[in-house]
Structures are given as C-alpha cells and as structure tokens.
Amino acid sequence: MGLIHLLLHNPLGFLVIAVPLLYSIILHELAHGWVAYRLGDPTAKLLGRLSLNPLKHLEPVGTLMLFVFGFGWARPVPVNFNGLQGGRWGMIAVSAAGITANLLLAFLAVFLDRLLSPSGFLGALFYYMAQINIILAAFNLIPLPPLDGSKILMGFAPATVRDALLRIEPYGLFIIIGLLYFGMLNPVIDFFTWIIRSVIQLLLS
Q: Nearest CA to 58 among 68, 72, 44, 71?
C-alpha cells in the first residue's frame, strides 16, 4: 500500500509514517556524504547534499514510487571513492555510514519507547521510527548493487567479485525491483531484520 492511500484515508497515520520515513532516508544519505567529507571527498558538500532539506535529497521517480507503491528511494549522495582516504577501508566506512545511521535511529527509538512508555501519537511515532529504520538497514545490507551492502562487499572481496558487481550495477535497480516483486528478497530481508532486532534487544536487556 502506498503513502497516497494512507494520506487519503488516514492523514494522521500518514504523518506518523511519512515523517519518520522521509527523515530516515535523508539521514541515511546525509551520513554517506558526511563520512565521505570527513575522509577527504568534498563532492557531497560542494553539491549542497550535507543538508536536512528534503528537496536536496528527493528523487522524482523514487518519490512517486514511494507514494503509489510504498517502495521508493532518494537521490544517492555522490561519492568519489577514488578521493577517499584509507583506500578500501574508506569505501567500506562510507558505504556502511547510511546503514549505521539507520541502526542508531532504530536503537534510539526503541530506547526512548522503553524509557518513556508513551502512548498515542508519540508511541506510534517511536514504533514506526524503529520499524522503518530496521527495515531500511536490513534492506541496504543486501549485497546487490546499488545497495550499500554491495559496496561493503566490494571492500572485502577479491577483484573478480568486485568486477562482477560492477558489471551488474547498471541493471541493479531493475534486478532488485524484480526480485522484490517475486518475493525472492524477503527471506534475506527477514534474516537481516531478525539479526538487527536481536542485537537491539540484547543491548537493551
């Protein structure tokens, strides 16, 4: 179900889901750009992408898909991996930054929910903030380009694997959409989701 259906039938529910979703995606991309900047690549900063302004990050087709189908994407933050300090470790750090941001947001939402035990709007906000960020982190861990997991894998993998991932990268988005449509990525997402939730529960126990 897309966000437009929720907006038309439950405006408050739309706010509870859309706002956390929007800023979770923005902070994911912002984290990539910030870590890249800290490691010597000013590309994102020069293009004005180190910003919380949604207009700097929204991508027309991805936003439309999100509203209509409930699955979408933002404009990826441009990174010059050749200009990063640290070589492979720099690429791994930048690629993992977005996932790390989502994990921190999920942990914070669960922590505040347990600490404050809120109800109503605030309780729902913490719940969806946690769920959205867990799913975003789990999804981006999938080692298929252009997802972050593929870049992390490239940092560790031998040249043959890196070359194979680079060859399929131009078609990666279409491959991912097709696999999602047929439900073939669901077990992978469920597995990563289970790991993330287990770690959060362990840290808060």
A: 72
At 73, the pLDDT band (50, 70, 90 cuts) reads confident
Specify the residue for token string 């043959």: 160
Q: With 90 as the cut, is the pLDDT of residue 9 above it?
A: no
Is the pLDDT confidence value at 2 over 70? no
Q: Number of helices and strands (H, E) in the chain?
A: 10, 0
Q: DSSP letters of 95-148?
A: HHHHHHHHHHHHHHHHHHHHHH---HHHHHHHHHHHHHHHHHHHHHTSSSTTSH
Structural domain boundaries enclosing 84: 3-204
Model confidence at 1, in pLDDT bands (50, 70, 90)? low
Catalytic residue among 26, 28, 29, 200: 29
Question: 74 vs 161, which has greater pLDDT?
Answer: 161
Grouping H, G, I as helix, E, B as strand and the rest as coil, residue 157 is coil
Reduced to 3 states, what is the DSSP secondary structure of residue 119? Answer: coil
Query: Please, is 147 exposed, middle or buried when counting C-beta atoms within 10 Å of its C-beta (0-12, 13-18, 19+)?
Result: buried
Whether 169 is catalytic: no
